[in-house]
Amino acid sequence: MKNFPENFLWGAAMSAPQTEGQSLNFGKTATTWDYWFQIAPEKFHQNQGPAITSGVYDHYLADCQRMQEIGLNSLRTSISWARLLPDGKTVNQAAVDFYRQYFSAMLDHGVEPIINLFHFDMPMWLMEQGGWENRASIEAFAFYAQTAFELFGDLIKKWTTFNEPLVHVECGYLYQYHYPAVVDFQRAIQVGYHTLLAHKAAVKVFKAAEQAGEIGIILNISPTYSKSEAQADLSSAFHSDLLNTRSFLDPAVLGTIPDELITLLRENQLLPEVEAGDHELIKENLVDFIGLNYYQPRRVQAPEEARMPAQMPSDFYAAYDWPDKKINPYRGWEIYPEALYDVAIMMKEAYNNIPWYVSENGMGVAEEERFMKDSGEIEDDYRIEFMKEHLNYLHKGILEGSNCFGYHAWTFVDCWSWLNGYRNRYGFYRLDLKTLERSVKKSGRWIKAVSENNGF
Ligand code: BGP
């Protein structure tokens, strides 16, 4: 039996844009996802857009009951900025009513809400002004954060500012998976820098208001594993860590941007525009806790050719395909649970053993109806196995003193995934796309037992 610390959070994660639906109704204005789907629906798996998703806007009451039914004691979702402040300034009362009822219903069912402010869902009104490239986005986000803290602060005790800020930087400005789908390293760095400042500005507002509760940020993390001990590979791994791990984790927890990252950007003419006062904003305003999303390890090797100045991250490091890897063929991601132990030790040793939790971990599988029993239940033993393996390594890290306070699976009910629509399913509950009915999978019954026993 693996026992986890007292009051350990067992839960699931989701996001507003991937679950709410009613995407252009009840006062909500468009985000980049609504807009992109409108102009380029062919980019989206089976033309599945953000309009309906899992219909949580209408199903939230029964969903909160379902959370309790499978033993979840906590759940992370996000507020939609474009729903709460449709023009960035005016509060939408329908949104306030919805979120207050939703969060209250969670609490009524013994589920602690962890509420995130930005999950890749840039409001169109701000995108039209340049989105995160425009420095004005920092103040706009701080205003949104303050509004949310004031309206929901009596219900929410754990806030996070961003989910995986690196992802909207990379996907929007390097790899073309998110709107505006441009390829420009310099702009990507500026977007990342403004995102970091927006995070810091929100933390500042939170602390200034002497808000009850705690604030953190959710980062997608993997240690970087080098192909070999050769100097060139190790140096690539170091650069990968600087850009992918330390770029947000160091300033969030330690209040510093690594000197080596600044040097690397300077040498490659990639430094962002900086203003007086930024340094203090970054130095102060540290987080109370960290959420780490982990799905797959990052493995790198030295690139065969590197341009100077760099045009893309691949000029610093190339992906390394480990021949011995185990893979989830549906998502194409390597399965390497050992990394959760390495992450746990990294948090303990390099980040002052700050409280942290696994804010996402999970396995997306296509055509899960193949595993449906006569009773209608999806027998997702592969998912249970995946989570057990990861929890085993997490447990080992906790036993060695890492300050981890929870484990959240992605996700609660199968949800809509950006360009992948409903192809890969992750939920403890299956979603019927025609009726929006939810039915519990075997993993949902399993997590209930894990939560009740605080271990397995
Ligand atoms: C994380 C995101 C989630 C979710 C998950 C699964 O990076 O925070 O929003 O989508 O990945 O990934 P995908 O949906 O691409 O399969």
UniProtKB/TrEMBL annotation:
Which GO molecular function terms does the record list?
hydrolase activity
Pfam families, per this entry?
Glyco_hydro_1 (PF00232)
Keywords carried by this UniProt record: Hydrolase
- In terms of domain of life, where is this protein from? Bacteria
Under InterPro entries, the record lists:
GH (IPR017853), Glyco_hydro_1 (IPR001360)
Q: Which family does it belong to?
A: Belongs to the glycosyl hydrolase 1 family.
Q: What is this protein called?
A: Glycoside hydrolase family 1 protein
Q: Which organism is it from?
A: Enterococcus hulanensis
